[in-house]
Amino acid sequence: MTDPVLSVKNLSTQFFTRAGVVKAVDSVTFDLAKGEIMGLVGESGSGKTVTGFSLLGLVDAPGRIVEGSVKLNGTELTTLSQKDLRTRRGREISMIFQDPIATLNPMLTVGQQVRLAIDAHEKLSHRAADARATELLSQVGIPSASVRLRAYPHEFSGGMRQRVAIAIALLHRPSVIVADEPTTALDVSIQAQILFQMRDLAAETGTAMIWISHDLAVVSSLASKLAVMYAGRIVEQGPTATLLRDPRHPYTAGLIASLPATAKPGTPLTQIPGTTPSLLSLPPGCPFAPRCDRSTDRCEVKPQITLQESRGWRCFHPVEKNAEVLA
Amino acid sequence: MSAFLTIDNVSHLFGPNLTTGEKIAAKLGAKVETRSVRAVSDVTLSVRKGETLGLVGESGCGKSTLGRVVAGILQPTTGTITIDGAPVMENGTKVTTRVQTIFQDPFASLDPRMKVGDTVAEGPIAHGLTKKPEARRYVAGWFERVGLDPVWVDRYPHQFSGGQRQRIAIARALAMQPDVLICDEPVASLDVSIQAQIINLFLKLTRDLELTSIFISHDLSVVQHVSDRVAVMYLGRIAELGPVAQVFGTPAHPYTSALFDSVPKLVLDDDELVRFDTIEGEVPSPLSPPSGCNYHPRCPLASGTCSTIQPLTQPVASLRTVACHHFEAQLAGAAND
Predict the structure, then answer these.
(1) How far is the C-alpha of B118 from the C-alpha of A304, rounded, in Å?
(2) Whole-angstrom Cα distance, residue B167 to residue B159?
(3) Residue B225: closest CA among chain A residues belongs to which residue?
(4) Range A82-87 contact pairs with CB under 8 angstroms and sequence separation of 24 or more
(5) Which domain holds residue B317?
(6) Is the alpha carbon torsion for B108, B113, B116, B119 positive or negative?
(7) How far B196 CA lies from chain A's nearest CA (Å)?
(8) Distance (Å) from the C-alpha of residue A276 to the closest C-alpha of chain B?
């Protein structure tokens, strides 16, 4: 097996607020191979976005990475200066955000913004940059791209704006793209078009992707492997289909079972009782224990990761072969 | 079939808000933008007592506007809405409390400066369903029904999580003892595990209280789960209406079919590379909808007729209608799949 493009070990990010220390990301570990797509799923506040920000060194005060390493193509990113990071951001690793209207500058034309992104890492003549921008925009499915370069973001629909953001992220053919819920704000028909294109582009360019989402179905149709986050920790990870068919962590199992698509219409859904814990006051042991029907006294200690073949989970009482959940 | 809630030929237009000056200028023949958006166009449907009708469609299709018109929040430009024969609106004023609404965003729909108990009690007191001295007990009863601790009536909205706030919003709607409940994306802003709790609560309450409801959502799996019948909207019109299993199983309208195909499903096979059948293009601007059938520019079955003649709504089976010139071809195609 070749070396992974991105290797994350024991990454922990904390926010030091007046109310206390928020452990947003806690010992996150994973590898990403060239061209691989990993889904990072979890509910709001589970730490998936902060994980993405940490990878790009975008965590601002009062937050900081307190522990762990992020290696991109063999280079350690956590110890780099902001200046060195900036030469890599956009070129080797880039990010797509959920809200395309906040990503784009409303005062600049789309063409100007694409050109700025080109100029950041490459010396190209104005005309060559325009040609490059046109090519990219048509690649992501924007019709009559050369004309649209002169348009402002407000003249684009939500789906088209997100395509522009994707084009900018793909610009320098980075090794890794972190996509943070890029289709959540879009309609299903547009979402389908974009998911489809992203998967093809990743395969074409060999770009690896981390696809952050709360939607298991979206991720399952895109990612070859999956990491499920809960209260800042990855509670389970493994190949997508295996993990969804046969979840080991009770939280993953509960999440799958609570989907309306897995239940008979009109019948009560399986629900996970309670709510997600505050990251300010996490229970000392397994953060899911208070909501878990399998928890025992053992769960007062933090479970370490159990590895089995290509997958792993953090639980003392893993669910065994859970076929009936999806039957 | 006895219709309980009837929506008869309802349209709603949003016109530009003209200033007095602009109105005078328009009268005098100046060019003032007076185009209006037909958010809801000639919608006719009826819902039986105790039935849940799902309303699906993409953003901008008019599903929320229709919900608001039915709830008496917006006045229909034309057409009437009646509950059990009695009109919801008379002379531009809502005249009934029999229809109540639950909105999408439980953060925006509760007054942050009012105790939640007072928020829930406000309507019932104003309409004489309870009296001020008894209001506390009345509200506590509804809190219990929706799974909230009755001692929380003195708290403020910011002290609750999203799921709990949605329960408060449900309690507020139910405390008015409505017959009809309009739910506008009630679970869209909630996490998956919380979403299941609220859906279960909705199923239980509509059954226990024999509520008739319209459930608006862009999430097809949620609608499939809670509804008896479903209406698919596109650009202000109902493309297809029918029992959930039939509409989801064998769509009669090409748009319904394409919409379902573009929803990502849980993939459980290792090697399966899912192909989405995506709909070409985007939803056209409702300011200038296409001629004829408004779906024809994106439709694979479109013919010459479709671009000129608007299809009539016609019955396909009992309780099932479709507005498409080529629904027979669509149904035949679906059967062959």
Answers:
(1) 48
(2) 13
(3) A265
(4) A82/A57, A85/A56, A85/A57, A87/A121
(5) 254-337
(6) negative
(7) 5
(8) 9
Specify the pTM. Answer: 0.85
State whether B272 and B140 are in the same domain.
no
Are both B18 and B141 inside the same structural domain? Answer: yes
B232, B253, B274 — which closes off a domain?
B253
Q: Say yes or no: B23 and B160 in one domain.
A: yes
Please list every residue in chain B whose beta carbon sits closer than 8 Å to the beta carbon of residue A254. Answer: 193
Mind listing the pLDDT tens digit of every residue in chain A (327 residues)?
A: 568 999 999 999 999 999 889 999 999 999 999 989 999 999 888 899 999 999 999 998 899 999 999 999 999 999 999 899 999 998 999 999 888 888 899 999 999 999 999 988 888 888 898 898 998 888 888 888 888 889 999 888 888 898 899 889 988 889 999 999 888 878 888 888 888 888 888 888 889 999 999 888 889 888 999 999 999 999 999 999 999 999 999 999 999 988 888 888 888 888 888 888 888 888 888 999 999 989 999 999 989 889 888 899 999 999 986 444 443
Q: Do A258 and B195 touch (CB under 8 A)?
A: yes
Claim to verify: residue B77 and residue B221 sit in the same structural domain: yes
Interface of B with A in 233-292 (CB under 8 A): 244-245, 258-259, 261-270, 272, 274-279, 282-283
8 Å CB contact of A244 and B222: no
How many distinct structural domains can be found in chain B?
2
| Residue B132 dihedral angles phi and psi, to the nearest 5° | -50, -50
The domains of chain A, with CATH numbers, are: 6-92+172-313 (3.40.50.300), 106-171 (no CATH)
Give the strands of the sheet with A6-17, arranged side by side. Answer: A20-32, A6-17, A63-72, A75-76
Contacts of A157 in chain B (CB under 8 A): 282
Considering the domain architecture, whether residues B258 and B243 belong to the same structural domain is answered as no
Residues in chain B with CB shorter than 8 Å from the CB of A239 are 270
Coil/strand/helix, residue A101: helix
* Same-domain status, B186 and B270: no
Whether residue B226 sits in one domain with residue B124: yes
* A-chain residue closest to B187, CA distance: A260
Which has the closest alpha carbon to A120: A159, A161, A93, A91? Answer: A91
3-class state of residue B169 by DSSP: helix
